[in-house]
Every structure is written in structure tokens, then in C-alpha cells.
Automatic annotation (TrEMBL), chain A:
Belongs to the sigma-70 factor family. ECF subfamily. It comes from Microbulbifer salipaludis. Residues 1-33 are annotated as: Disordered. Residues 1-22 have a biased composition (Low complexity). Residues 44-109 form the RNA polymerase sigma-70 region domain. This is RNA polymerase factor sigma-70. Keywords: DNA-binding, Sigma factor, Transcription, Transcription regulation. It holds the Pfam family Sigma70_r2. Residues 162-212 form the RNA polymerase sigma factor 70 region 4 type domain. Gene3D superfamilies: 1.10.1740.10, Winged helix-like DNA-binding domain superfamily/Winged helix DNA-binding domain.
Length: 241, 67
């Protein structure tokens, strides 16, 4: 991955679209001087956050770089309209989501369609681990109360756990889950784009949700109280610090 | 209905309205099964959490580092 540690305007242009990126870089540098965006730390953090988000979904660092670059350039052109950094962040992420949807849509035309079978064994093992032969929860796997959805959810650490859980999903499950819940495409749109049947999509979403739920519960909501900051048992933990 | 089927319906419910019959048998199962009631709440939480995440609203380190 190219070095991202600098502000957007000075980063290396993405490889697949040299013209556009060089252009964007210029505009970004210009716009970065706009009133509400004079804070290079804010921009750098925002950019890193976006790269992380895009990389998770695209699983391709170059494409993620490009998407982020374009989204930032687009947003910063209109930077004057954003008085608050949080408004800008929301806006820039919504642009990024469209970029990602475009890339996924394009990529789908190129990729073989059904990968549903790939993880069948893994999924079977997961289901057997969760439910007994009668289809009831194994005792240790029964979902507990998450003590309010906001129970510590607004913390850095929670989002790192969430990232790690997303990273742990099989690729296709991660992709449909993100298209559905992050990009907020309707079921039928995802089916069209990925050439999936509705029931296949529902199975993928179901399994993604089972996995994510279990991961969050084990790694966050039920993590030993004393060790919440360190003992999540996630291998990805701490990687982003 | 067992827990596996109940959780399938609870996920499906995020995608489309359940039929009357599905709703009825799900409700009946949930009355008896606390674990699946928790699961049900968690499905909503998962959606809320994901939307916060996707809006970039999670206060990753930047909020604290920038001024």
C-alpha cells in the first residue's frame, strides 16, 4: 500500500486512474485550504478511516485508495458548505459509499457469480457449533442481553472489535452484508448486481448476521469485564493502533 | 419451530415483512425462548450499529486527536 500517512493532497495517485487522481490531488490540495478544513490532523484521520472502510469492502487496497481519493476530492470541492467537521464526514462517507457500490457493480460483471458453495463446510460447522441436532441453541451459545445497544458501543475499542469481526466473515458474506447494511441497497438491487437468487441472498445475510452477532457477543458484550480493553481474544486486536 | 428456524425468520424480517403465519409461529417461539428474544433485539442493534459505522459516525481516534 502506498504511504497514506500524509494529508490527502500529497498522497500517491492511485494506479488505475492516473489522470483522474492527479487531477483530484490538485483539487484536494486546493480545497484543503478551505475554512473548515485547515486541520491536517482531521483530514488525515478522516482519510485513514475512509481507507479502512473502503478496504474492508473492496478487499483491494488500490481500488480503495482510488475510491477514497475521488470521494474526498468530490467532497472537498464543496468544502465551504460544511461548517462542521462531522457534517463533512457524513457527506464524504455517503459519496464514498456510492463509489464503492459502483466499483462492486463493475467488478461483478468480471467475477464468476456463484461462490455460495465455497464456504458451505465452514458454514455447516458454524451452525453445528451454535445449534444442537434439534435446532436449539447450545447452552454456551445462547444469545445474552447486550445490556442496551449503546453499552459501550461509542468507543474506539468497540469499533476496532467490529472491524475485526467484519474481517472475519467469509468474503461473499461480508460483501452482501456491507451492501445491505452499509450501502443500504435493497435486497433486489443486491440480487441484480450479484446475480443471486433471493433465497441465496437471504442465506448469505443470515449466516453473516449469525457470525457477526456471535463475534460481537464473544469479543465485546461478554468479554471479561476486567479485560475489556485487552483480552478480546481477537487476533486482529491492536493491529490498527 | 426451533431456535434455528426462529433466527432465520428474525434475519429474514430485516429483508421483508413476514407472512401472517410466519409472524404467528415466530411470536409463539419468542414467548418461550429468552435466547431468541435477545437475538431478536440484537438483529436491530446490528443494523443500528452498521448504519452508524457506515456514516463514519464512529468516533475513531480522529475526534480526540483533532481540535
Amino acid at each position: 500500500m502506498p504511504d497514506n500517512s500524509s494529508v490527502p493532497g500529497s498522497s500517491a495517485p492511485g494506479s488505475s486512474a492516473p489522470d483522474r487522481s492527479a487531477n483530484s490531488a490538485g483539487r484536494v490540495a486546493q480545497a484543503a485550504d478551505a475554512q473548515s478544513l485547515t486541520d491536517p490532523q482531521f483530514l488525515e484521520a478522516l482519510r485513514n478511516q475512509m481507507i479502512r472502510f473502503a478496504t474492508l469492502q473492496l478487499r483491494d487496497e488500490h481500488q480503495a485508495e482510488d475510491a477514497v481519493q475521488e470521494a474526498l476530492a468530490g467532497a472537498l470541492k464543496n468544502a465551504d458548505s460544511f461548517a462542521r467537521q462531522s457534517a463533512l464526514r457524513t457527506w464524504v462517507f455517503s459519496i464514498l459509499k456510492y463509489k464503492i457500490a459502483d466499483i462492486l457493480r463493475y467488478r461483478q460483471r468480471v467475477i464468476a457469480t456463484s461462490e455460495l458453495g465455497d464456504t458451505e463446510q465452514q458454514d455447516q460447522a458454524m451452525m453445528d457449533g451454535l445449534f444442537n441436532a434439534n435446532g436449539h441453541w447450545h447452552r454456551a451459545e445462547r444469545p445474552s442481553s447486550w445490556s442496551g445497544p449503546q453499552g459501550g458501543v461509542q468507543s474506539d475499542h468497540f469499533w476496532r472489535v467490529f472491524d475485526a469481526c467484519l474481517n472475519g466473515l467469509p468474503e461473499k458474506q461480508a460483501r452482501v452484508f456491507m451492501m445491505r447494511e452499509f450501502i443500504e441497497l435493497e435486497s433486489h438491487e443486491i440480487c441484480n448486481q450479484l446475480e443471486l437468487s433471493t433465497s441465496n441472498l437471504h442465506v448469505l445475510l443470515y449466516r453473516a448476521r449469525l457470525r457477526l452477532r456471535a463475534c460481537l457477543e464473544n469479543s465485546w458484550f461478554q468479554a471479561p469485564a476486567s479485560g475489556k480493553e485487552s483480552d478480546t481474544g481477537l487476533t486482529k486486536e491492536g493491529e490498527r493502533q | 419451530m426451533n431456535c434455528k428456524q426462529a433466527t432465520q425468520l428474525l434475519s429474514l424480517q430485516q429483508e421483508r415483512p413476514l407472512s401472517r403465519r410466519e409472524r404467528f409461529s415466530l411470536r409463539f417461539h419468542l414467548m418461550m425462548c429468552k435466547a431468541c428474544r435477545n437475538f431478536s433485539t440484537q438483529m436491530d442493534s446490528l443494523r443500528t450499529i452498521s448504519r452508524h459505522y457506515a456514516k463514519g459516525e464512529h468516533p475513531a481516534s480522529d475526534d480526540r486527536e483533532s481540535h
